[in-house]
Structure to design on (239 residues):
């Protein structure tokens, strides 16, 4: 899922680690971020080869996201488990709604900017910075990647195409997950043995999924972008 639509993998991992492997939610968050780092690298490489990535936009969002991830990791430690788990699920539901509303109601945004110049203008640079910091805080706080939020910002603020949005989000998540993993590992909130097993399966799936992104019909991508975070949120809330 993460490789195919650039979203949903971390949220599903948090749900599985919490409900199936009985990890505390804080440790599940750290473990999911660590796994997402490896998976994002694999997926981003595949997307880059498929020319689905805008490097400038991904680097701007990713570097700012690193700062936000450190803040989110520290804030999340003070939230009780019984509050954090359903909150993460609700956040995923909200993001699923945003993606649905954007594709259903928002008019198509004309790409008045040359895609090569995305994130060079002051408005795009500032928007990318805010998007990165906000996404980074939420990613390390909830452990759900916040890819739909980043995708929405790239679609509207940076004006990337849907396919480029998916690939560029994967690049930004490398920076965010790296920073969040280091911050949470420092606090002892990463289960390395669980991370290895999850990462092996997710990396293979992410690489194959990225190959399918450009070949998939646009309606399929739109449905998948909405359904994946909704499913992950449901697992966290009712699991």
């Amino acid at each position: 899922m993460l490789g195919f639509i650039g979203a949903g993998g971390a949220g599903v991992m948090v749900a599985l680690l919490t409900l199936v492997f009985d990890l505390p939610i804080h440790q599940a968050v750290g473990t999911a971020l660590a796994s997402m780092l490896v998976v994002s690298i694999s997926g981003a490489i595949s997307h880059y080869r498929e020319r689905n990535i805008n490097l400038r936009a991904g680097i701007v969002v990713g570097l700012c996201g690193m700062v936000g991830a450190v803040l989110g990791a520290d804030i999340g430690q003070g939230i009780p488990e019984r509050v954090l788990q359903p909150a993460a699920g609700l956040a995923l539901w909200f993001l699923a709604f945003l993606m649905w509303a954007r594709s259903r109601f928002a008019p198509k945004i004309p790409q008045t900017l040359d895609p090569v110049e995305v994130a060079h203008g002051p408005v795009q640079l500032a928007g990318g910075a805010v998007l990165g910091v906000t996404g980074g805080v939420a990613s390390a706080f909830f452990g759900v990647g916040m890819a739909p939020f980043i995708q929405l910002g790239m679609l509207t603020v940076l004006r990337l195409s849907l396919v480029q949005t998916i690939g560029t989000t994967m690049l930004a998540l490398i920076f965010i997950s790296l920073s969040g993993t280091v911050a949470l590992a420092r606090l002892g909130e990463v289960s390395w043995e669980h991370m290895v097993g999850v990462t092996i399966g997710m990396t293979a799936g992410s690489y194959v999924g990225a190959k399918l992104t450009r070949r998939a019909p646009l309606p399929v991508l739109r449905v998948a972008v909405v359904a994946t975070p909704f499913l992950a949120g449901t697992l966290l809330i009712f699991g």
Summary: The chain has one domain: 2-238. Confidence is low (pLDDT under 50) at residues 111-118. DSSP finds ten helices and no strands in the chain. Residues 2-238 form one domain.
